[in-house]
Every structure is written in structure tokens, then in C-alpha cells.
Amino acid sequence: MANSLCYGEQGGADSGVEVGQETPTAGGAGFGLFSTDFKRRGTFSLWTGLLSGPADLQGRVRRHKSARAATKRCLSRLDRGRAQTCLAKRASLTPLDSSDTVCASCAVAKPAGFCTRRAAGEMSRSLSGLRSDALGVMRTARVSAENLQLALRSDLSLEERALNDPRSYRGPEETRNEGNEDLKEMLESSKESLKLEAMKRVVGLIAKGKNASELFPAVVKNVANKNLELKKLVYVYLVRYAEEQQDLALLSISTFQRALKDPNQLIRASALRVLSSIRVPIIVPIMMLAIKEAASDLSPYVRKTAAHAIQKLYSLDADQKDHLIEVIEKLLKDKSTLVAGSVVMAFEEVCPDRIDLIHRNYRKLCNLLMDVEEWGQVVIISMLTRYARTQFISPWKEDGVFENSEKAFYESDEEKRKSAEETKPYAMDPDHRLLLRSTKPLLQSRNTAVVMSVAQLYWHLAPKHEVNIITKSLVRLLRSHREVQYIVLQNIATMSIQRKGMFEPFMKSFYVRSTDATHIKTLKLEILTNLANEANISTVLREFQTYVKSQDKAFAAATIQAIGRCATNISEITDTCLNGLVLLLSNRDETVVAESVVVIRKLLQTQPSEHSDIIKHMAKLFDNITVPMARASILWLIGEYCEHVPKIAPDVLRKMAKTFHNEEDIVKLQTVSLAAKLYLTNSKQTKLLTQYILNLGKYDQNYDIRDRTRFIRQLIVPSERGGALSKYARRILLAPKPAPVLQSAFKDRDRFQLGTLSHTLNSKATGYLELSDWPPMAPDQSVRNVEVAEAMKEWSPAVGKAKSSKSDDKFYSDSGEEEEEEDEQAADSGSDEESSSEASSSEAESGNSETSEDSSQSEKSSDSGTGVKKTTTQKNKKLQQVKKPRKVSDSDEGPKNGHSCEAGSRSGSGSGSSEESSSEASESDSQSSSDSDSGTEQKKQSEAKPAQKVEEKPKKEVSLLDLDDFSPAAVTMTKSSILSPSVLSDLHGLSLAASSPAIQLLCLIGHVFSWQGKLVSVCDRVCVCQQLSSPVFVPVRTYELLHRMTGKGLAAQYHFSRQPCIYDDRMISVQLTFSNNGDHTLENIHISEKTSAGQNIHCFSPVECLEPEKSVTVSVGVDFNDSTQAASFQLCTKAEGFNVSIQPAVGELLLPVTMSEQDFSKEQGKLQGMNESSATIAMTPESIASQPLHRKVVNMANVGVVPSGQNNVHRFAAKLVSSGALVLVCVVQKDSGAQLTVNTEKTIIGSMLLRELQTVLSAP
Amino acid sequence: PTAVKMIHSLFLVNATGDIFLEKHWKSAVSRSVCDYFFEAQERATEPENVPPVIPTPHHYLISVFRHRIFFVAVIQSEVPPLFVIEFLHRVVDTFQDYFGVCTEAAIKDNVVVVYELLEEMLDNGFPLATESNILKELIKPPTILRTVVNTITGSTNVGEQLPTGQLSVVPWRRTGVKYTNNEAYFDVVEEIDAIIDKSGSTVTAEIQGVIDACVKLTGMPDLTLSFMNPRLLDDVSFHPCVRFKRWEAERILSFIPPDGNFRLLSYHVSSQNLVAIPVYVKHNITFREGSSQGRFDLTLGPKQTMGKVVESVLVSSRLPRVVLNANLSPSQGTYTFDPVTKLLTWDVGKINPQKLPSLKGSMSLQAGASKPDENPTINIQFKIPQMAVSGLKVNRLDMYGEKYKPFKGIKYMTMAGKFQVRT
């Protein structure tokens, strides 16, 4: 450690060893040296003891003047340690008067320093090693002092100057920059603008890569400056040079420690950023502490910074791993989308193998993904890819079976279990499906890295027939920058080998342009070759013909190779290709010819007998071909197939004998081979020629050729000795040779995960994490369940049995469950029992945005809240037998779960009721016949050790996620007459529609619910599937649609029925009452013409006739698109038409939603910022007295009352009919007024509602 | 020994191979690491041919080349290469946004702002803030006025509060935006990528479109943009502000826009659709064997332009190496021929259907050299204002959430993308 502090100048191989030895002591010193002199001495002697006297160390210390100087200082400090400590203590007690202290300590320091300098000089001759250690101790001591927030700063810098010549400080090799003197002056001046100017110039130096390190003392003094820009530039400087000047850098630490407590989150965050970027090992404990604190900061931005700091600390000191993992675990539970990406990044870097940490956050991460910032998305997706490959079973095994997977989802539990055992038919884990579904929309991202990461996820995880959806997006990326093209093409090249069909329709997108860069051209060629098949080969070849003529000869050669590959892959065109290639032999360009010959040779090798004429042709061209490689190839061909060209071969050999001495080596070698082969097959004609050539070869300058010649001679011409082999000469030389395989360079690149650097390089990059193979058996699925200590209902064993009968039956029973569940929810929310803790938690959450983000406090309290609520639920329900014992255990459990970590995990990923019921479901399944005690037991276990599998794990979990896959059919199940036709289509879009992913789970159970006792299916398109509650009864307010005077007897009025519209769930139902005030019967009253654009009106069926003095009420559905724009249309009778319009009040655009107080707070937490509008209302005593507050609100707007624990807080929830966006209203009553808050995604509606509510509430 | 992921350092290298800026996010990496890059730079004949990913013994260099500057990122371990590439392009875009141009001079002049930006954009090598609207709240773009004011008052370019966008659900938009003239402009720009073969028939043609917006609206406007024929759009990618589900369901773009310029949407009109090719080329480029002269004859004409004018036409072609010089006469516009790079460019201007522009003359060839195998490819650039070649039409633009009436403008434009004619 001491060595690593040596001004960044050391760095031999030996230092590692020393650091290894010393670290434990140094660590001890770091902590131990806080206060007493005794301890310092103790540690000092320990250090001395550790000295094994390495000569090189001593030498190095001697070399370092700076180190020596520092040692002196250190020794002096040690000598008067006590005095210093006293001073220090005094300083810490009276921090106000630091300058006095500094002076005092300097006074002590100087004389002491002088004495010890002499002493140290003597010692240096004998014990220079000791000094370096002492130096370390000194530094440690100094840090300790900093920890105590001592005012030693200026003291040290004074000392620094007193004892060190600044010139020798950096060592001779560090030449000082011209003009740095005046920069120093400027930095030390009192003028802010001069300082800033100087810092700007310093940053300029850094940017140019010039050394500005000697300004460190001058710069670091400005670290506490008030000017933010100056401060930032100082930070930039610090981060750059702190590593080199560690002890000076320590001077700034206390400033950052102070800033970590700043009320401004930006300042807190940037302090942490810089603190963690200063790579000074000695401050590791301080960093650790800061990270831990920041991880529970109220501001998600600071927590994000903490996640980044984790990686920095880890790379500085890997020993902190265990502590850091704790922080990662905590941050993984964070609900903020801002944190998610960064903490997963930290996870990937620190502990990528701790998959167990992901389990319980898996669903949350999937659901949050859409809202995470784009860079975080990339990291999360690639992590989840690895995760999925370890946790789910392969969807590829029986692709054929999987085609019917839809059906498989509906299979009964029993069957599923069986299927798991027999490994067929395959049913995808719902969590696996969730991942695929939540990543799919990201293919539309503008960020190419995100698109690529989704593409690789689908490639590695999706069933084969689903991978095709990534094609278009990848092709789209080809329009992007050259570098993006390069990477994407590489990945497509790998994909197109395995799956031609994916990219074949887009073949033209891979046509080469003359302006493409070389590497792009080559990749496109590769892909075109991969895509070629019988059907498109003619097009491909035509395109290749253009490329062969390219001016870029390397590219032309590559094209010829590509043609060769096409020819071998597609047997139908082999001849065509060969002929084409033969034509190329007369090309003027050598590279083209050479490449053609080589490719032809390879092609002929596959089927030589049919192509003797081509060989003949090549032999004829031989004289004109000059490229050695091509000549060699032809010779080899002729030799190999000399039996097919018995006449030509000897002639070629004859020619070669003539030109032998002028040929290239490679050609000579092949000539020798040709001669040998001919000698064996046709010795009559070629004996003399062969001898001649062998003689020539024997005296060749190249020893390879001489060797080859000698070998061949021994082999083919039997002599007295060594003739043993010649028997086999024929078998050796004329052995059938395997044809070369022409294959893609991307053939085996898929061993690397797509989209990775390793894939691009086709070699394993540092830090590459292997993608594991699918596990043969599905790992426990329940590990991903998130326990929420909230009971809603139990799945009775009876139901479980019923389910196992037939798929259809299961289906219905399932829905039955749903209904029950809803009922219970209703009962639950309607209950009056509330706990004070719950109330306080929601108050805290709604109070301000930061608090609601806060993990520890509010989560804890909300958890205790759920605990109570659960009890309540238990009381309300008297349905199932399993409950009674559970209730007891639950209430027992409350305090045990008290510590925040546990609580965080639960509500952290619990997204309301669906999660609850999911865990519920799994539990009840496992328990089905056993008593509930074991259930609780199990739960506790799994909480204590999340990584461990629980003993009694559920055989088959009935996760609610399954239901999501049921969803399309879930609609058909609720075949009530009033089912809207659009529901089905809406449901299909559901999976993608989740913008606020945490709610997505909610929607899974929300498809079906009861409303006013009737079974109504209303699917919420935007996934806010809270239970619709029945509207509170309010006096009907009617509006006039058509006056009887204008209507010539026909009068029409309308009112909002405040009920879900039966035509379309996005419409608002409006009741129209027609009355005939005239004297004759009106016939055929109907809506003829919808004048307003954009609004959809579902008309009533025409009223045939309306007698005078009679009236009739019809209902229409209007989709107002969540705006208060009037819907205009023409109301017609048989005789006449009237233009009328329905003007909706903003309060009528809503449908009430039932939710618990917690859910309310949770949702409200998500709708902060611009989605929140609030106002303060002054309320007169009359207005308070006149009517209960909630009455007023409910009269004005169609909202549902959220039961509240506090008398002065009223909450209302609703959703917009058309978009389904949540609208949350909260009124906090105070003595003389009220604070009114409206939260909704639709900001306009929010502000309008706020205004209207303001009026209503302040009215008497 | 832990490998640190993501971007370690950044070097900016100009075309002559000088490092003119370096920034390290972790410990400093010696600039000698760039030697591997320079090697590759030398090996590549064109700067475009430098491979984007270069492995070195201890690091990996990932670079992008834009505005004649290489942005070389130093990576230590496995990272998705596109992640780095995309980020580097984002850096370039940001510089361009801040300084108007992204040249070596502009970067050197604004080195402090550059440093401040890079510091905010990456933390420990991981992207922190890349949204232009957020960055502009943290670090104000330099203007002459502000520079003067700052020198006098000593105020700073650095924001003191965490940009509201960082925490809000609309991170791309600043809050508290105010304009006296509220205006929103949308440019529908379509580019035709095409390869035309010798005979004039289309080998491949595709339309790539973007909608670039310049929105200067007060407050928090919520816009919806609908199309007459949204089905034309085959594959789209959105700015994060666009509500995806709304598009999925209704084919309507609904969004709270960022402040200022941004790309709302890019789309692809499927290659299955027939693409109207707006220009044709008549060419006769011949090299005769044994002759030292070659003939060059090029005529351009409009085709399927729906009566719109084709303008800003620029023809370029890289002639074979044997061409020593070209002696041509254009009927309009000017031409240049670079004997070193063999690049012929002809700035045509507008195409007048009555009098078609042509470029005719002879090329002098290297004596004794054989005739080139292939005729040169002709690249054409053009613009056709007031037309979207795919026929895409914006139906309406509505604003909610704010009371005032904004001025709305939609402009269409068709351009040549990679438009090549093989001769």
C-alpha cells in the first residue's frame, strides 16, 4: 500500500507482491490511527517488523527524492505525534478558528522537522526501507486526520512547501510547462474571474494531453470555491491528477464529505461522483461509507450516482466486493427507472455470477424496461439474456410442438406438470414470455444499440418462429452511420448462415454500392452469399457479375470466392458458375484470374470427372496466366486429374520443364508434384521429363524445392536402399484428396453472443461472459415470485382439482376465481379499518415527491401497512378454511420482517394486487392440502435465503402471468351480451401497451371484473386495470341538447349516466331523453351526420315514432378522446335535422376506479413532476359545513373514493375513459383551506379538473 | 484485476493523424495506444475504410469518423460495440448542436465546454446525460453575448440545479420554456436509395424518411400528429417522446416534444412498394482499346416528379485510374476533375425539362494502358422541394395542454440518398 502511494511513479512487477503483504497492516492502520499516539507507534513498529529488507525497494526509495522528503516529514510528525494530536483535537473542537490552529501547528512542525531531517538523513543510509513504510503511515495518519475533519489542510501544504523544492517534487523527467508560473499566480489570486480563466487554461492543457500536474497544490485549494463552474473545472482536474498526487488529493476529501450532505441533489451527486473518481486507495473506507449513504438517498439521481460509484470503488479495491454486493442488492430493489440501468451495470461488473440477486427483481426489471433510459436498456437487456438462458428451458427443442403453444397455455395444471416431467409439449415459462414481450417495443428505439440488444435477445431466447420480427429493425439500422452498418452487418452475417429465410426478403438491402467502405462491401457480399438459394441465385449472380468488374480488385476477388461458395452450395448452378469463372480466366487483372483459378480448382475437386474439358481449357490458358498461385493451382489440377487429361498433361509438363528455372517457388513445387504423378501414371511418356525436372530441382536455390525433389525421387524411383516406401508411392501421391469446404468466415461466430465485442472480433474479449446453454430441466420458477405480505384470497384445493379436469373447465373456473378475487378486493377496499401506520405512510408519500421515492422509510411503513390490511382482509372474508391459521401467523410475521431490506424487497417489486395474488397462487398450490403453517414457514425461509430453493417448492406455479397469456380467451369467457367488440383487439395490443410497466401486472387480473353486480368485461387498454367501482350515487344533472322551440316540438336532454359504456370501453355513455312537446307524432328520430372530427359516436337505434307528450330515453356512446371538445352531430327526425352538440364536463370523462390507499400512493408516486398539478384552496366555514367534501368532489367528477385512514385526507381515483390514464385526486384538509392535488398523465385534463374542483370546493 | 467496462478514454484524431484532444474517465491511458489506430489509418486507403473496431494487446479501440475527425474510444473489456458507437455519434451530435459545426477548430475553441460536456455525458465510462435538453440546462451553449456577459459579471455557464428533466417522466424536455412566438415546424424529408443499372432499370430502390421537427412552444404542449396514409410507413423508429402504444393502436403520433430541434421519427417505406425514380441519366462512356481518348457523354432528365422541380443536382463519379484528364463541356453548371483522386464532380443546379443538362467531351487516357473493365458508377444528389415521394401526407397537427395558438408548418422534401447509376 505504501508503495502504491509513491506518487504514481513506481509500478514494477515487484510492487504487487509488496502491496499484497502490506495491505492488511495498512488497512489496520487506516482505521486504527484515528486518535492515539500509542496506536501510531504500534503500527509503526508493525511496519518495521514487516520489513524484509528488499534491496530493490530500498533502492527505489533512495531514487525518489520526493519519497525521501516525505519520510522526513513523516518522521517528524511521528516524533511529535502527541502534540499534533492534541492540536488536532483542539482544532476539531473549535473548527471556527482554524487559522490559529494552523499557525500553532506550523510552529511546532518546523523545528521538529529540522531535527528529524538530520536524523532521517542518517537513517537513510541504513534503513531507507523503513522510510517508505513510515511514509505510508504518515499518509494514513493524515487521512485519519482528514476523517476527523481536522483543519490540517493548510498546515500540510505549508509543510509541503517548506520541505520540498517544487522542482524536484515531480522528478526530473517532468518538464515544467512554460507559463505555468503565471497560471499558478492566477489561481492563487483573489479574483474569481482570474481563477476561472486560469482553470479554463488548465483544462485546455489537460485536453491537449500536456502535463499540468505541478499546479495541483494551487488548483486543489479552489475545490471549495463557490463558483460552480470553477468548482466543476477543479473537479475535472482532480479526477485527472488525483491518482498521481494522492496525498495532495486527500486535502480535498473533506470538502466532498461536506458536499455529500448538501441539500441540493446535484451537488450531492457530483460530490459523490468526484469522490469516487479520485482513485486513491486510502480513501476506500470513506468511499464505501459515502456509497452506502447515497444508496439510500432520497433523490434517485443521487442513488444512480451511487450505483456508478460502486463500479469505481470495485475497480479500485476488489476486496470491497462483499460490501458492494450488499449495496447492489439494495439498489436492485430500487423502483426508480433512473437507477435501474446503472445498478444493473454495477451488477454486471461486480458480481455477474450472482444470478440469485436478480430473481426477485426480474419481473420488475422487465416491466420497467420501457421507461429506463436507453443506455440502461442495453445493459439490462444483455443481463436478462444471460439470466434467461440459465433460468428457462429451451423453446427450440420441439419447435413443431411449440407452434401450438397457445393451446398449451390453456392446458390444465395436471397436464402441465406432466409435461414438465416428460419434457413435452413445451410450454413457455410466463416469465420467459414476459421478457420477450417487454423488450419487443424497443425494436422501435432510435438508439441502434438498443435495437441490436433486443435483436440478440430474440435470437438467443425466442422460439425460432418468432425471431423474424427483428429482421426489419435490423435492416433499418443499415441506413445508419457506417460504423453502425459494420456491426449490424456482421451480426446479420452470422444470423443469415443459420436462418436464410429471415433476411431473404430484404436481399436487395445488401446490394453493394460503389461508395461503400471496403469492410462494408465484404460483409454485404458475405450476406448475399449466405442468402443465395435456388430461387434467387440468378439475381444474386447477376449482381455478382457487376461486382467482379469492380475497380476495387480486392473486392472483385472476394466476389469470385463468393461465386465459388454459391456454386458449391447450390448444385444446380455449379456448371454455370464454373463456366462463368472460366471466362474470367481471360480477364486482364491478375488478381481476378488468380482467384478464379483457385476457386475453380476447389470446385473441380468436388466433381472432377465431369469437368475434364474445363481442365483442358485451363491447360490451354496456362501460357497466358502469370500469377504464380494460379499457375500452381492449374498444375496441381492437371497432376491430380492427369487420368482425365492423358494427352495434355505430359505436354504441360514438357512446357514446364522449359520454363522451370524462371518459375516462382510455389510453381516449381507443383511442377515437381506433377512430374511425380505423371511418372506414376504415364511413365512411358514422361520418364525423361521427370528425371530432367528432378535434376533441375535438385540444384535449386530454394531448399524446400531441393528437399521435395529428393523426397520425390526416393519415392518414385526405387533404389537399393530405402525402397520400402516406393511400394506405396502411388497410394501416397495419388490418394483421393478431400474437397476443400468453401464456407463462410462467419460459420462459427455464433459461439459468441451476438452484438458483443467478442462477436465482432471473433475472439474472446476480456471480460466476456459466456452465454450458458439452456438448462435441461426448468429451474425453480417460484424464485422470481415476490412475496407480498398481503393476503387477498386463497385458491381453495377444490378449485385446484376442478381445474385439472379439462382445459375449458379450467378456463371458466379460472375466471370464477377472478371474480371472487375482485369481490374481495372490493370488500377489502371498502373496509373501514385502517391503521395509523398506513395513514402515515401514505401521507409521507403524497407529501413530496422525494419522500415517495425514498426506499427505506416509506417502504417500511407501507409494508407494515399491508400487514395490517391483510389482517383486515382476513376478517372480512369468511370464505376459505385455510385462512384462520394464516391470520395468526401473519400478524406474528409483522415485526420479524421489520428490517428495511426485507420490506424493500417486498413492496419494491410488488406491484399491487397482481403480485400479491401471484405469490398467493403459488403458495396455495403448494399447500393445497397441508395446513397454512407450513406455508408461512416456507415463506420465512425463502425470505431469509432468497437464493435457496425452498423445500416445499410448488410443483407448478399458477402464476398470474399465465393469465396474461390467457387474455384473449379470457374475453370470450365473459361472453355477456354486452361484450364490446373492440375488447378483443385491444387485448392483443395489451402486452405492448404498458407504458407504466409496474401497472402492467395489474392489468393481468384486471381483464375481468364485476361491476354493479353484473358481469361486465371492460378491458383497460392502457393497462390501468384497477377495479372499476360503482359510481357513487349523485343527483343527475341534465343538460339541454335541443330546445323544444328550435326542435319544433322535439326536445332533447342529455345526462351522463356515469356508467361504463356498453358499446366500447373507450366511450362515455350518455343518456338522451327525447320528449315530444309538439302535437303530432315524430317519426324516425336518429343521428344522421357526425360533424365533429375525431370523435366517435355510437348512435342509438332510431326511435321509430314518438307520440306527442311522450318521452323516450336512449343511450349513445361517445368517445371524446379525453378532451372536453363538444361532440356535434345532427339529430334528425323524418322531416327535419337539427345540429346539436354534447358538451362533456371534464368530470364526466372519467370512470371511477377502486384502489387501496397504498396503490393510490404508489400510482401517485409515478405521476409526479409535470403530471402533478396542485393548488391551495381557501375554504370558508360555510363551504366546509355545507356538504361533506368528498360529496362535492364526487358530484363534480365521476371519481371513486379511496378509503382513507385520516379524516382530513380525501383521495379519489378514476381513469380517463378513452385513454385509460389514471387520474388521482387528493385533498388534504387544513384548518382554513385545503391542499388539492391532481395527478394524471394527461396534463390538460389534470389542470382542468383542478380548476373545476377548486371552484366546487371553495363554493359555499 | 478487474476489467473496467465501457468507455475508458476518448481521443480525437484529425485526418492528418494528430491527437488534438484527449479525455479520460478513469485513469489516464497513454496516447501511445493510438499508434495501433494510426497503423490502421495508414493501411486504409480512405479514412472511411478504417475498421471501426481495432483490437490492441490491452485495449480495444472503437472509432467513428465524422466531419473529418476520428473519435476514438478506448475500451478495456467486453462491451456491445454499438453501445460505444452510438454514444460517440451522440457526442458528435451534441457538439454540432452546441457549436453549430463540429470541426477541429470549433472543438479547440470551445475546449472547456467540450470538457464540461464530456464530463456530464459519461460517468465512469457509462452514459449519464445524453439528452440535449438536459445537457443544455447543465451547461449552457456558448453564445457571443453570454461569453461577454460572463466575463463582465463572472457568472457561469453551468447550471446549479439538477435539470428537472433528469427526474421527470419527460426527461427530454426542459421545463419553464417560454417563447413569444410559438411555432412548430415539421420537415418530412424522404431520401431515395437506389441502384439503377446500365439499361436504366431499377435494381433496387427504397425510401427512407425522417420527420425532423423544430418546436419552439411555451410550457408543456402535448402534440398529436396524424397522417392521411399512415399505412405507408413500414418500419419506424421514434424519438423517446412518442407514445408507442398510441401509435400501435391508432397510428397517431402523440408526444410532448423536446424543446428545439429533434428527430421525431424515422421510417422506411417498404421495398415492396414501387418507388418513383425522379431522374434519369442517359450515359455513353466509352474507352476504346488502344486509343488514348475516351468519350464521355452524360445527359440528365426529370422523370416522375409530379411537376416539381428537381434542384441542387450534383453528379459525381470516380473515373477509372487510366483516365489522366477530362476535357468536358457542360451545358449548364460547372464541373471539376481531380486528376489525383480521379473524382469528377458536376454541379448541375436545376433541371430544366425543356433544356436538359448535359456534360460532354473526351477523356485522355494513360498511353498503353489497357481499357478498364468497368465503367464508372455515377452518384447523383438532388432535391425536390414540396414533395414526399412516398406520397406520405400529414393530416393534422393538434396541440393540447396549452392555451395559445401556435404557428404550425409542415414542409416536404425529397432527396437523393445513396442514388447510384451503374454505367
Automatic annotation (TrEMBL), chain A:
Segments forming domain AP-3 complex subunit beta C-terminal: 953-1125
Alphabetized Pfam families for the sequence: Adaptin_N (PF01602), AP3B1_C (PF14796), AP3B1_C_2 (PF24080)
Single GO cellular component term: clathrin-coated vesicle membrane
Disordered, as annotated region: 163-183, 795-956
Main location: membrane
Composition skew (Acidic residues), residue ranges: 815-836
SMART domains listed in its UniProt record: AP3B1_C, B2-adapt-app_C
Bias kind Basic residues: ranges: 875-886
Boundaries of every Beta-adaptin appendage C-terminal subdomain domain copy: 1149-1258
Protein's cellular compartments: Cytoplasmic vesicle, Clathrin-coated vesicle membrane; Golgi apparatus
Biased composition (Basic and acidic residues): 887-896, 936-956
Keyword vocabulary terms for this entry: Cytoplasmic vesicle, Golgi apparatus, Membrane, Phosphoprotein, Protein transport, Transport
Compositional bias (Low complexity): 837-874, 900-935
GO-annotated biological processes: intracellular protein transport; vesicle-mediated transport
Keyword Kinase: no
Xref: InterPro entries: AP3_beta, AP3B1/2_C, AP3B_C, AP_beta, ARM-like, ARM-type_fold, B-adaptin_app_sub_C, Clathrin/coatomer_adapt-like_N
Bilayer topology: Peripheral membrane protein
Source taxon at top rank: Eukaryota
Similarity field: Belongs to the adaptor complexes large subunit family.
Functional note: Subunit of non-clathrin- and clathrin-associated adaptor protein complex 3 (AP-3) that plays a role in protein sorting in the late-Golgi/trans-Golgi network (TGN) and/or endosomes. The AP complexes mediate both the recruitment of clathrin to membranes and the recognition of sorting signals within the cytosolic tails of transmembrane cargo molecules. AP-3 appears to be involved in the sorting of a subset of transmembrane proteins targeted to lysosomes and lysosome-related organelles.
Protein name as annotated: AP-3 complex subunit beta
TrEMBL record, chain B:
GO cellular component: clathrin adaptor complex; cytoplasmic vesicle membrane; Golgi apparatus
Principal cellular location given in the protein's record: membrane
Gene3D superfamilies membership: 3.30.450.60, Mu homology domain, subdomain B
Its membrane topology: Peripheral membrane protein
Organism: Electrophorus voltai
Keyword Nucleotide-binding belongs to the record: no
Domain MHD: start-end pairs: 181-422
InterPro entries for this protein: Adaptor_comp_med_subunit, AP2_Mu_C_sf, AP_mu_sigma_su, Clathrin_mu, Clathrin_mu_CS, Longin-like_dom_sf, MHD
The entry's keywords: Cytoplasmic vesicle, Golgi apparatus, Membrane, Protein transport, Transport
GO BP term, example: vesicle-mediated transport
Cellular localization per UniProt: Cytoplasmic vesicle membrane; Golgi apparatus
Family of the protein in this entry: Belongs to the adaptor complexes medium subunit family.
Superkingdom as given in the UniProt entry: Eukaryota
PROSITE patterns xrefs: CLAT_ADAPTOR_M_1, CLAT_ADAPTOR_M_2, MHD
Stated name of the protein: MHD domain-containing protein
